[in-house]
Inverse folding.
């Protein structure tokens, strides 16, 4: 498990960020022995297929300090944990309906001393707070996802991108975007990362106007 792929694309990591990213591989390998978070094959490719993939959102926009972000269906902490390491001044709320996955997220956040991460076992529809952005990694089709979270956004916004959804998804998305019937911008991760894994991977930004 080689973390050097991160410095290839994010050369300005601080020593603390580098240390935290280096620790992630071991922490996920340890937890994956107890709970099947990622496939056995993928654990060897953790830095490329999960951590760097999560950081694809950071290639689309750099969140400003005090931005608040909800990560829906975070699983073992993707994309929230890598983004929280990269953006220590940004507040992250990581949620999942499966309790044992939130247990993993809480443990990893605690062992990395991530003060900007809150993890909770809750469904998206039950969340009462509002945020600048909602991030997620392919938990469902775009239309039902939008319906879960469309009322979770703060008015206004102070980042370069309008407040809204940043969704990591692969494959052909034209049909899903048509079904959604909302303005959406698709960013190809192959424009930022040269590895074959990213050829079909995308970030979809769906602004939610208030």
């Amino acid at each position: 498990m080689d973390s050097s792929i991160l410095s290839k694309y994010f050369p300005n990591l601080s020593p603390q960020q580098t240390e935290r990213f280096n620790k992630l591989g071991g922490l996920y390998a340890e937890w994956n022995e107890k709970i099947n978070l990622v496939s056995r094959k993928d654990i060897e490719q953790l830095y490329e297929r999960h951590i760097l993939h999560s950081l694809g959102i950071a290639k689309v926009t750099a969140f400003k300090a005090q931005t608040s972000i909800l990560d829906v269906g975070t699983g073992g902490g993707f994309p929230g944990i890598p983004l929280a390491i990269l953006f220590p001044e940004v507040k992250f709320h990581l949620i999942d309906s499966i309790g044992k996955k939130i247990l993993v997220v809480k443990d990893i956040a605690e062992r990395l001393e991530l003060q900007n991460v809150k993890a909770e076992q809750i469904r998206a529809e039950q969340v009462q707070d509002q945020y600048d952005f909602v991030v997620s990694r392919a938990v469902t089709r775009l239309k039902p996802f939008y319906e879960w979270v469309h009322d979770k956004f703060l008015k206004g916004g102070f980042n370069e991108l309008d407040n809204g959804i940043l969704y990591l998804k692969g494959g052909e998305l034209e049909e899903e975007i048509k079904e959604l019937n909302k303005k959406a911008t698709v960013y190809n991760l192959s424009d930022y990362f040269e590895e074959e894994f990213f050829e079909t991977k995308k970030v979809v930004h769906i602004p939610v106007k208030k």
Notes: The longest strand covers residues 164-170. Strands lie at 68-72, 91-96, 117-121, 133-137, 164-170, 185-188, 201-207.
